[in-house]
Amino acid sequence: MPGTTHPIRPVDVAGVRELARAGRLAGSASAAPPRDLARLRGAVYAVTWPLVFARLTKPLELRRRHPDCLRGLEWMRPDCLDGFHDDVEAVVEHALRRATGPIENLEGWLATRLNPATVDAHRRRRGEIGALQRPRLPAWLGDALGGDPWLGELAVRILLWVGVPTTAGGELWPLAGWAAHRAEVTGEPAGRDTRDTLDREVRKVLAAMRTRPNWYAEHVERPLGHKRAPVAPMPADSSAELAALELVRPHEVDDARLSGLAEQALRAIEARLARGQDPAVAVTAVVRVLFGAADPAVLDRLPRNGSTRDDWLSAALADDARLDRIVTTALTVLAR
Prior knowledge:
The chain contains 15 helices and no strands. It is mainly alpha-helical.
């Protein structure tokens, strides 16, 4: 269980129940050394998580229409699982601070603390990233929006949304969800252009918020910076590999490859010349070996998409006159 590296034993859970009945759960937690506190927290976690899953998580996932998340923890989506653990941790910490009196039925007491504990933790997390804990429409912002009821409602929804850790899929704002609420407030039925209209309205609200730069930076930009980046979906054909990211242009790869081969060629030619081999024979042999064979570095190229320099070298090696010029150039470089 989170908070401890030790397996939680039935005796640990029984000990927590006994501490609760004696009214000593919070006191024991505050005085416990780290190792004992970790085991105590794990035991409370073991009692708490089924309650949170049954009474908070399942109803929430039902509203989200996440049937996979309703099946159990091992099937939950990563973001939903993170939220579940946040809620459990909130209730555990609440219990370790607030369970100061005798509690005969620990599960029953925890059930009454689920909402206040998670709401307090939610507000605390929002406050830590700069998001308003209880967003309300400031009077100055309402005036800047001309007193428009819907734009005022949209501003509050923006202030709520910036404190939520996730994004709306691959988008920043949950325009699809806001469209239905817009229709309720304005009486205008949602249509094909509703999304574009909402996008313009969001930009209008944000522009009004920016008239107070410090306020905007603290309560909008700062919490937005804490949102988790969305993960790009995999292709429909999961067996297909994603295209490799090209960090270097193809011609730069060719230049580096040919430069490397040239260095190898010069070293090989020098070695042959040192052994007394005829210069023309040495250069010709090395050039043919290094530049005439197929290079595995270009096997990933599409047909007819190779290096034009490879084509030039192949033609040069087949032409005696051009090959003579290559030999002369190589010997000149080596000062021979």
